Structure formats: C-alpha cells, structure tokens
C-alpha cells in the first residue's frame, strides 16, 4: 500500500468509476485499476462491486475507504505543516570559493530571508575538492567549484560518477587586483617576471585534483615576496594599505572595487582560463531556498566587472 493507491481508491469512491477517477486525476486508467487490485490482494478483501451503474463499495470496502480518507487527511495535514515550516525557516548550506561576487550573492540571500522566524544557514569558503567533500559527505546542499578549464574533464567525470549535477556560472581569466593608486594600476604587465618587484597576496587553502596543497593557479612566479591569507577581509585591507601589493582575482562586483579603492587590470602575460561551476546532488528540483540563492548568484555573476 502507498499513498497514491489510497488516493486512487478514494477517487473511485468519489467519482463512481475507474474511468471517471482517471479523468479527474489526469492518471492512466490501467494504473488506477492496478492500484485497486493491489489493495484488494494485499488486504484480502473485495472493496468494490462492479455494476452497470458504476463501482459500489462493499461494507468492508466502505469502512476501508473511510480509514483511507482519515489517513490521507493526516498526510495532507503533515504536508501543509512542513510547507508552512519551510516558509518560516530558511535552511541553506553552501560552499563557495574565494569569489567576491558569490559572497555578495550570499548577503543578498540573507537580506531576503531576514524576515523569517528561523534561519539555519551555513556559508563556508574553501577549495573545490573540499567543497565536493562537504556536498557528498557533510550534508551541504550546494557548492560553487572553481577550477582551471584544463581540469574540466576531471571534474565532470568526478561529479557524474557521484550523482552530482553541474551548472555553469562563468568562465574567466584571472586579472591583477591592486590599489587604484598603485603602480600596477597604470602598468600593463607583459612578462610575469615584472611582478617579482611587487608583493603578491594569495589564498593558500585550495587543493588541486591529485595534488597536496596549491591555490588553483599554476603560473605564480613571485617566489620571494608573498603574503598568504585565508579569508577575504585581510586581502582587501592589505591591498588598501600597500599600493605595491597585488593578487590574482576573478571578476568582481563594481561596488566592491569602489568600496575598497581597487582596480582590476587585464594581464596579457597570463591567459589561463578558469571556470566557476555550481554543483548539487542530482535528485530532482532544487528546494525554494536553494533556487533563490542560485538565482541571486547568477545575477551577481552577470553584474561583475570582467
């Protein structure tokens, strides 16, 4: 017995025949006939008598249907309670790379959900391999992966084997992020060796496929002058205070550049293509709060300075 079979049974009682029930429920008539047969065989009773005027319930059948109606009322009440609770409570667990546009999307989502009575929201930053682990084994709903396009086949196969759906967000080339008044803001770098006289800021908590450590960028050349950071506030503060500092950055919201007095500069010496891809378990449609975050993420991605 399942809930659908009970709904078919009550519909036969309400509409008087299998064909009429099928029409009202937009269901296939053989499916409803099979459901009735399954219930009669499972409980070893005859629920309906067939007549020229339609389906007439037996005495046992009538009592069975009355109990089925009570079960369905309880199920519908439970469903409504869950829906109402979901409307009052935002629950979201998402893993993000160090991408400013993604953090802005998270804040946009929090603003939308602020009126709710309950919020259970986890926003975590890290590398792509860590993000996949959190989605596969730690109960996170969504992850935004960032990787070099040359690794696309690796990630595509990895996600497909583990039942994860991939949704592209943006492709980009890293640019130099630096103080608007610093020397690199006005200088076009044609040889990466030119950067050795400046100070590089880099995130150091990424992990490439099959490698220990590494920040996802394979073309760093500044070995002598580096500052390793692990969260976004430090990087912006350093760039504000040290005009000779720089870091490789993805597209950013214009308001973030203006707020921190920074500028993005294209670098002809660097052409590695990167990709941001959203991943989540491929088990049907996203929940309302998940889709709301995805919509905001796509919106912020479209508004970035590239």
Automatic annotation (TrEMBL):
The keyword RNA-binding does not apply. The keyword DNA-binding applies. Pfam families: HTH_1 (PF00126), LysR_substrate (PF03466). Residues 1-58 form the HTH lysR-type domain. Keywords: DNA-binding, Transcription, Transcription regulation. One of its GO terms (biological process) is cysteine biosynthetic process. PROSITE patterns: HTH_LYSR (PS50931). One of its GO terms (molecular function) is DNA-binding transcription factor activity. PANTHER family: HTH-TYPE TRANSCRIPTIONAL REGULATOR (PTHR30126), HTH-TYPE TRANSCRIPTIONAL REGULATOR CYSB-RELATED (PTHR30126:SF6). Belongs to the LysR transcriptional regulatory family. This is LysR family transcriptional regulator.
């Amino acid at each position: 017995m399942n809930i659908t079979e009970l709904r078919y049974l009550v519909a036969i009682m309400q509409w008087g025949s299998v064909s009429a029930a099928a029409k009202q429920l937009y269901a296939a008539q053989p499916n409803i006939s099979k459901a009735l047969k399954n219930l009669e065989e499972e409980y070893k009773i005859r629920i309906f008598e067939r007549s020229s005027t339609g389906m007439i319930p037996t005495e046992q059948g009538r009592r069975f249907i009355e109990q089925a109606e009570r079960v369905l009322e309880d199920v519908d009440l439970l469903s409504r309670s869950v829906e109402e609770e979901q409307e009052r409570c935002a629950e979201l667990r998402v893993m993000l790379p160090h991408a400013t546009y993604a953090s802005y999307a998270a804040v946009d989502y929090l603003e939308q959900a602020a009126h709710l009575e309950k919020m259970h929201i986890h926003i975590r930053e890290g590398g792509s391999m860590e993000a996949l682990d959190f989605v596969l084994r730690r109960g996170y709903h969504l992850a935004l992966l960032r990787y070099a396009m040359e690794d696309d086949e690796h990630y595509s196969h990895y996600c497909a084997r583990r039942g994860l759906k991939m949704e592209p967000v943006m492709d980009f080339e890293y640019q130099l992020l630096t103080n608007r008044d610093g020397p690199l803001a006005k200088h076009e770098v044609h040889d990466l060796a030119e950067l050795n006289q400046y100070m590089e800021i880099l995130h150091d908590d990424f992990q490439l496929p099959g490698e220990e450590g590494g920040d996802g960028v394979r073309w760093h050349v500044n070995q002598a002058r580096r500052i390793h950071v692990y969260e976004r506030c430090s990087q912006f503060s350093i760039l504000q205070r040290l005009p000779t500092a720089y870091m490789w950055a993805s597209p950013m919201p214009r308001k973030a550049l203006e707020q921190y007095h920074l500028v993005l500069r294209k670098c002809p010496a660097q052409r590695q293509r990167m990709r941001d891809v959203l991943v989540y378990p491929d088990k049907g449609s996203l929940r309302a709060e998940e889709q709301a975050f995805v919509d905001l993420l796509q919106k912020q991605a479209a508004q970035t300075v590239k």
